[in-house]
Design goal:
The chain is an alpha/beta fold. It has one domain: L-arginine/glycine Amidinotransferase, Chain A. It has ten helices and 19 strands. A four-stranded mixed sheet has the order 1-5-6-7, with helices on both faces. Strands 4-3-2-19 form a four-stranded mixed sheet. Helix 1 packs across helix 2. It is globular and about 50 Å long.
């Protein structure tokens, strides 16, 4: 039987050609704490560069900052292009591969900064086209507003997402769940879409991105954010997500194994709660970068749980206590490019 889509979305743990980042420059994203963010991105980029090429988008005028932090790294390549913010997971292309010849394509979702929350966003909305042009792959223009952080897949036909995000009236007004599913199937080549409500993290500004709530760690296992604090206001919503996932099956009709991944106790910065979740880890070749929140018990729990499921990779804990003030962590700040033929000749420049 012919699949309705010629594409497949590889799982994040499959071989990667590169990681894409966007150098931070928007002071409003981390009010009062921006001075700590470039060093955080430096550690992140250099960690990734040890295992694969890293491509960094640099807003015009910010080249010196990027070079100061990333100089001497032959595996890091800079691309000067306008951006509004650093959360490239959400506005960069979601890379898929063709089923017939396994060549790469980039899905360019419509983007309006999480339901028009943070204008201007026009530069970010143009980034997917730029990246596809640099990579030299086709760009598939999607019909729905969607962010990359709203999607998580197992590479074998099963997709996780949330209703609060994709069915939000400021993203896709007039679209039914069935209509959105049809577009996700067309673009990503999935067979089964598992929906969560999307509630659970106070302080989250994405309307429930799945990459903060639940993530595949293999084809049949999902780690799920749960509260470590019995009095946490997030607890009932996170527990509801866990119960829902326990009833689901994969596209191959296998039961979905769920593993609780406790969140840190509630933390506030300047009176606002920050959405801390270890689900915002990033898988790369040979490593898994896991955000740390300076809470020894849950930090260590996250390392141990993820090490169990990624026994063939090194768990790399990186501090995210300042980064999360921007309401995201390492998965939000990155986009993986799967390894696929042909060997693309990128137009790149290393930091000097």
């Amino acid at each position: 039987m012919t699949h309705p889509s010629p594409y497949r979305w590889p799982a994040e743990w499959e071989a990667q050609a590169a990681t894409w980042l966007a150098w931070p420059h928007n002071l409003n994203t981390w009010p009062g704490r921006f001075e700590n963010i470039p060093a955080c991105f430096e550690r992140f980029a250099k960690t990734l560069a040890e295992v694969q090429p890293v491509h960094v988008l640099v807003n015009p005028g910010c080249e010196q900052s990027a070079r100061d932090h990333l100089s001497g790294q032959s595996n890091i390549h800079l691309h000067v292009v306008p951006t509004n913010d650093c959360w490239i997971r959400d506005y960069g292309p979601t890379f898929v591969v063709r089923r017939d010849d396994h060549t790469l394509a980039g899905v360019d979702w419509k983007y309006n900064a999480w339901g028009e929350k943070y204008p201007p966003y026009e530069d970010d909305a143009a980034v997917a086209e730029f990246i596809c042009r640099v990579v030299g792959c086709p760009r598939n223009q999607a019909s729905i507003y969607c962010e990359g952080g709203a999607l998580d897949g197992n590479g074998a036909g099963t997709l996780l997402t949330t209703r609060r995000c994709l069915l939000h009236p400021k993203r896709n007004p007039g679209w039914t769940q069935e209509m959105v599913e049809a577009e996700l199937i067309r673009q990503l080549g999935v067979d089964t879409i598992l929906w969560l409500d999307g509630r659970g993290l106070e302080g989250d500004d994405t309307d429930g991105h799945i990459d903060q709530l639940a993530r595949f760690v293999n084809a049949t296992t999902v780690v799920v954010a749960v509260s470590s604090d019995p009095y946490d206001s997030n607890r009932p919503f996170l527990d509801a997500n866990l119960r829902a996932l326990q009833t689901y099956r994969t596209a191959d009709d296998l039961p979905l194994e769920t593993v609780a991944l406790p969140t840190p106790p509630p933390r506030h910065i300047e009176g606002s709660r920050v959405p801390e979740s270890y689900c915002n880890f990033l898988i790369a070749n040979e490593i898994v970068v896991v955000p740390m929140f300076q809470h020894e018990r849950t930090d260590q729990q996250a390392i141990e749980i993820l090490q169990h499921y990624f026994a063939d990779r090194t768990i790399v804990p990186l501090d995210a206590t300042d980064l999360v003030w921007g309401l995201g962590a390492f998965h939000c700040a990155s986009q993986q490019q799967p390894l696929a033929p042909p060997p693309f000749q990128l137009n790149v420049s290393p930091p000097s």
